[in-house]
Every structure is written in structure tokens, then in C-alpha cells.
Amino acid sequence: MYSITARFNQIVFFTSWTLVVLSLLNQGTAYFFKTGKPTVDLKILSADKFQHYKATYYNGGATDWDQVTFKFSLEADFEPVYNWNLKQLFLYVNVHHEHQQKGYESDCVIYDKIISRPDDPSSWSTSSKLVLKNQRAEYPLKDIHKQLRNATVNFEVWIEVMPYVGYIRREKLGDFEYKMPQQYN
Amino acid sequence: MAEGQSDTFWKSLYIYFNEMDFESQLFVKKIYKIIILTVAIISFIIAFFLERFSVCVYSTIGSSVLCILVLAPAWPMWKKNQPNWQQANQQKQK
Q1: Do B53 and A19 touch (CB under 8 A)?
Q2: What is the DSSP string of B36-79?
Q3: What pLDDT, on the 0 to 100 scale, is given for residue B5?
Q4: Distance between the two ends of chain B, CA-based, in angstroms?
Q5: Which residue in A has a C-alpha nearest to residue B57's C-alpha?
Q6: How far is CA A22 from CA A9, A17, A150, in A?
Q7: Does the pLDDT value for residue A34 go beyond 70?
Q8: How far is A77 from chain B (nearest CA, A)?
Q9: Which ranges does the record mark as transmembrane (chain B) (predicted)?
Q10: Which residue, among A174, A184, A113, has the nearest Cα to A151 in the 3D structure?
Q11: What ipTM did this prediction achieve?
Q12: How far is B88 from chain A (nearest CA, A)?
């Protein structure tokens, strides 16, 4: 404490240590309160542009495939997950389908969205509900083996929880089955 | 610095803010911890019930900035208890 730089140094790093301890307490107390599971409801409205595509340029060996673009509506309520340690949620819709005879499995993400939590808790009840109507999927579903006609695909809604302090974890919120059309349209 | 050359303005300002009494050094060493810890604990409890962690972080950082401005430089209030220096030895050059 005998010079100005020594005093400045001690105050700054003592403050940093208290902020580290407070952040760990922040993470620790958040687990005691809200650990519920959000509710979600997904309805597939249509499967558009379901065609047999052919490649027009060399793209690594895939010459033709089935491709479909979905339209869906999604309703979700994330209030059970909101606590003061949460920074944002990453929501994505995953399509899982299996080859009928050979046993291939494939996963494809067709839609994703970032939902950030506002700092002021008085607006949590309005900002925690998500309603998407007639939403077109961002990425199409492609199948190299051309087995999508009359197949049963599984729509999964996942959420990735990103806190301010702590581990990032993924949760599956729901499973929804859908039967693809019999012919191309 | 060579003898006979006076200090520049910035160096003498630095020397002024650098030197602090021994008793006030002990006082500063105790009090910055007390201030920052009480502000951190009270604002954490308040922020817990308001569910906003930013309140806690901003108030802790604000209290530390206040401590730096008041406690780190040697203001005149920290120079009140000077030690009793002995008389300078006048018999250097013989």
C-alpha cells in the first residue's frame, strides 16, 4: 500500500475476485428454482416442392436426390426455463428419418431461431411465448437414397440452453410424426 | 536526475499523489475490503429478489471505482499523520 500503483492494483483485483464469486453464486442459485420443461406444439402444414432433383454441377458425387421444403406452425412457452442465469435459448427443429430396408438413419435441421431473454423481468411473461404461423423451413430436407416417398419422418424440437455462467445443455422438447406424400408434387 | 535539476510538473504531481502516511495506509487497507464486500453482498440480495443480476454487477463495479478515486491517490486527508523525520545532517561537505 506504499505506492499509488499498489493500491490501485489491490482494489481492482479484489473487485475481480468478488465478481467471480458472485457469478458462481448466480449459477448455483439458479438451479434451485426453475428447472421445468417448456411445452411445445408443432403442426406440419404442408410439404412443398417435393421433387426428384438432379445435380447441374459437380458437387462431390451426388447426382440426384429427393428434396422437400416444409411449412409448419409452432407454439411454445419457455417460462419454466427462464431464470436470471439464462442468456439465450437456441431453438431448432430436427427431422429424423430411417431407411426402410438398409437401416440408415439421418438427421437434418430444417429451422433454427435464437431467443434472447430480456434483462427486465417484468416483460418475461410476454417475451417467453413463441408463436410461429405458417412458417417456412429455412433448410430443405434432402435424401440421397430417394426413399422419402410414403416414409414416416419424425420431427423433433430441441432447445439449447445457454447460461451466463455454467454449462450449455440440450433438451428435446417433443416428438411429432408425419407421413410423407406418396408421390412427388 | 542530476543535482540541481528540478522535477518536471508531471513528476512532482506523481510524487504528490504517491506518498501517503503509514497510518492511513493501514486504514485504506482495511476499508476498501469492507466497502466492496458490503456493497457486493447487499446488492446480490437485492438483485436476487428483483431477478436482475446486472444490478449486482454494476453496483459492485461502481463501488470499486469510487474506492479507486477516493482511496488510491494520496489526497491531503491521507497525509495528516506524518512521521517525525530527524534533522538533516548539515556536516556533509568538509
Answers
A1: no
A2: HHHHHHHHHHHHHHHT-HHHHHHHHHHHHHHHHHHHSS--GGGG
A3: 59
A4: 24
A5: A19
A6: 20, 9, 56
A7: no
A8: 19
A9: 31-50, 55-75
A10: A184
A11: 0.84
A12: 23
